[in-house]
Every structure is written in C-alpha cells, then in structure tokens.
UniProtKB/TrEMBL annotation:
Family statement drawn from the similarity comment of this UniProt entry: Belongs to the class I fructose-bisphosphate aldolase family.
A GO cellular component annotation in the UniProt record: chloroplast
InterPro entries reported in the protein's UniProt record: Aldolase_I_AS, Aldolase_TIM, FBA_I
The protein's annotated pathway: Carbohydrate degradation; glycolysis; D-glyceraldehyde 3-phosphate and glycerone phosphate from D-glucose: step 4/4
Keywords: Chloroplast, Glycolysis, Lyase, Plastid, Schiff base
Major location category of this protein: plastid
Superkingdom, natural source: Eukaryota
Entry's EC annotation: 4.1.2.13
Taxonomy of the source species: Eukaryota, Viridiplantae, Streptophyta, Embryophyta, Tracheophyta
Record's subcellular location: Plastid, Chloroplast
Protein name: Fructose-bisphosphate aldolase
Gene3D superfamilies (alphabetical): Aldolase class I
GO molecular function annotation: fructose-bisphosphate aldolase activity
C-alpha cells in the first residue's frame, strides 16, 4: 500500500520550475516539482544529485586525510594589511604576494597540510617568481580552496549582531573559481554570545550557510560550513556549550532542508571554551570533553571532517586542545583549519625580510607538524617557544 501510493505520488509530479545556472561547465537542471493538486498541498522538492557528487566526496576525503589539516590563508586584503602592519610593512599587493609566496612554497608543506584556503586575489595571483599560486599548491599535494563570503554587516532588527553577505552571484562566481582550480570553499559567519545571540541572528547564520553549501556543491566545490561562535565575553564553558548546541541544531536543520549532501561538506567549528574574558580557564581535557560531547550530539557521522578554527587561542593552546580531542577514535576526522595558530610565529620570524624567508618557512612547518601530530593524538608541547604560547584574541575580530 505504502509503495503503491508512493509511485502514484511520483507519477503525478508536475514540473513547475527549472533553474538554469549560467557559467557552469556542466549543464544541469534542478527541478522543483509539486504534488498533483489532488494530493497533499505541501511542495515536494526533488533535487537532482549534484553531477559532482563523487568528486565532492573524494575532495572532502582527501582534505580530511590522516595527519593533515587546512592552512587558512584567506585573510581579506584588509585583514592581511593588519597582519603586515604588525611587522611594519605596508599593505601593498607586492607585500601580500611576498608573504603568500613564502607560505605556499614552504618545502614539504603538503605532508601536514591537505588544503589551503585562499582569498580571491590569491586564487588569481602568481608567486614572486611567476608561478600560479594554485599550481604551486597542487604540486605540493595541497587542495586549493577559496573564501567566497563577502564579509559581515550589521543585521537590522537584531541585538547589534551581524549577518554574512555573498549569496548574490555566488553560483557563477563558484563556477569561475572551480575553473581557476579551487575545489573547496569557505563561508564564515559569526554568532556573538554577549549579544544574545538572538534567535534571528542564529537563524540567519544557519540559513546563509545552508544556501551557500548547496550552491557550492552544485558547482563542484566542497563547502566548509563555519558558524564561528566568537570567543568574546566573560561567560563560562557551559554557556558556550548551550549556544553551540542551538547553533549546530539550526545549521543541520537548514543544511538538510537545502538538500546538502553531508558526505561532501566539511565543518569549521569553534572549540567549546569559556569566553576569552572568563576568569575560569579550561584545560585541554575539559575543552575536548565539551567539544566532543557537542559534536556527538549534533554532527552526523556522514560528515567526513571537522576542521577547527583557532579563534584567537595561542598556537600551543590550539594544538593542545586538538591533541586532547584525538585521544580516542572519533566518527569524523578531527583536525585543524587554523590561520592565526599556524601563521603567527611564521609572520613574526619573517618580519618582511628576504633573508628570513627560510627561517619563517621552518617555523610554519614546525606548527604544521605539531598540528599534524595533534590530529593523530601524538603531540607533546615540550620545547615550544614562548611566542607560540601567546594568545591572539582580539575583540570583534573580522576576516
Ligand atoms: P583563525 O584560526 O585565525 O581563527 O582563522 C579562522 C578562519 O576562519 C580562517 O579561515
């Protein structure tokens, strides 16, 4: 009976609308179909599985491979400028190019790094000796990725919160990024605990991430889903846990509603920690306990990889916390997608001087290797420098 009515339903489906996405290398159609008027009135969406499905799964698995994680080097030009200013350099294209060249050409980086997130400028940029950055990464066995969001703006009607822009034109931009060699994408939105978070801000963040994820998959890019719960605030770890549960419930609700294929996404969560201004600090053991409890409650095992952001933790702290989470097997690859916690000592060591490039690349490799060991649960903080233990929290940090 059940199957008879199911086939009846199928045969009475009427195609109502089709969407043609320009600029895609493969012409595909997404059909929205409705039940016959005589049947139940609720719309039934049938989404052709992405013609990139197999490739998406493969890309996600490659990035989530044992002992490897992501180098986030997708600072917008404005944020890159702040980094350069901290070592006394001007924010010129030549200086950004020199720094990014240093990062992507670090010898042997691909042993520890499986993916690199680039800012749009870098996706189309060449190294100082004229090779395409993307080609250099691929040669290092590193998958190039691209930041596709257009940044945060105030969310009208909220408690002084923000929302993330970038959906307009995203399909054609994503298709162009794929052509340029990108195979995964990143969209970072934020949730603030001191400002609520309001139900509106959480819903908006989750919906935006889900739309972005569906569009990315349609265009062959594995979406990294990143609702960053900011470290700002003096709240304790239990409050972070409570907010994170709410945020991830909503994110997965909308990912499912948008027919996103979970096997072809990666997540980039914040670790569950106390607020940066909280008096009580949490040990790596406690951060791991809370964070893994959250993940087990909210993240389906179909998701291949959880790639944490560092969010202002010190380099050593971020590595110790990751290591604590990998002391027993997890259903997903639990790894890193750090920017500050991979780059900080490297940037300082470089200081903008050509004669320091080699030493700076070595410090990048030290951090990459430390996090690789942490991914395998085998890291020890013995011998770490004082610089690597310095926190990098900045209130209202943007990317
Ligand atoms: P941090 O590791 O510096 O928090 O960067 C996170 C991020 O979103 C970069 O892509």
């Amino acid at each position: 009976m059940a199957s008879a009515s199911a086939s009846l339903l199928k045969s009475s489906l009427v195609i109502e609308k089709s969407e043609f996405v320009k600029g895609q290398s493969l012409l595909r159609q997404t059909s929205i179909v409705r039940c016959h008027p005589n049947a139940a009135a609720s719309p039934l969406t049938v989404r052709a599985s992405s013609s990139y499905a197999d490739e998406l799964v493969k890309t996600a698995k490659t990035i989530a491979s044992p002992g490897r994680g992501i180098l986030a080097m997708d600072e917008s030009n404005a944020t890159c400028g702040k980094r350069l200013a901290s070592i006394g350099l001007e924010n010129t294209e030549a200086n950004r190019q020199a720094y990014r060249t240093l990062l992507v050409t670090a010898p042997g980086l691909g042993q520890y790094i499986s993916g690199a997130i680039l800012f749009e400028e870098t996706l189309y940029q060449s190294t100082t000796d004229g090779k395409k950055m993307v080609d250099v990464l691929v040669k290092q066995n590193i998958v190039p990725g691209i930041k596709v969001d257009k940044g945060l703006v105030p969310l009208a009607g909220s408690n002084d919160e923000s929302w993330c822009q970038g959906l307009d034109g995203l399909a054609s931009r994503s298709a162009a990024y794929y052509q340029q060699g990108a195979r995964f994408a990143k969209w970072r939105t934020v949730v603030s605990i001191p400002n609520g978070p309001s139900a509106l801000a959480v819903k908006e963040a989750a919906w935006g991430l889900a739309r972005y994820a569906a569009i990315s998959q349609d265009n062959g890019l594995v979406p990294i889903v990143e609702p960053e719960i900011l470290l700002d605030g003096d709240h304790g770890i239990d409050r972070t846990f409570e907010v994170a549960q709410k945020v991830w419930a909503e994110v997965f609700f909308y990912l499912a509603e948008n027919n996103v294929m979970f096997e072809g996404i990666l997540l980039k969560p914040s670790m569950v920690t106390p607020g940066a201004e909280c008096k009580d600090k949490a040990t790596p053991g406690k951060v791991a306990e809370y964070t893994l409890k959250l993940l087990r409650r909210r993240i389906p095992p179909a998701v291949p990889g959880i790639m944490f952001l560092s969010g202002g933790q010190s380099e050593v702290e971020a590595t110790l916390n990751l290591n604590a989470m990998n002391q027993a097997p997890n259903p997903w690859h639990v790894s890193f997608s750090y920017a500050r916690a991979l780059q900080n000592t490297c940037l300082k060591t470089w200081g903008g001087r050509p004669e320091n490039v080699k030493a700076a690349q070595e410090t990048l490799l030290v951090r990459a290797k430390a996090n690789s060991l942490a991914q395998l649960g085998k890291y020890s903080a013995e011998g770490e420098s004082e610089e690597a233990k310095k926190g990098m929290f900045v209130k209202g940090y943007s990317y």
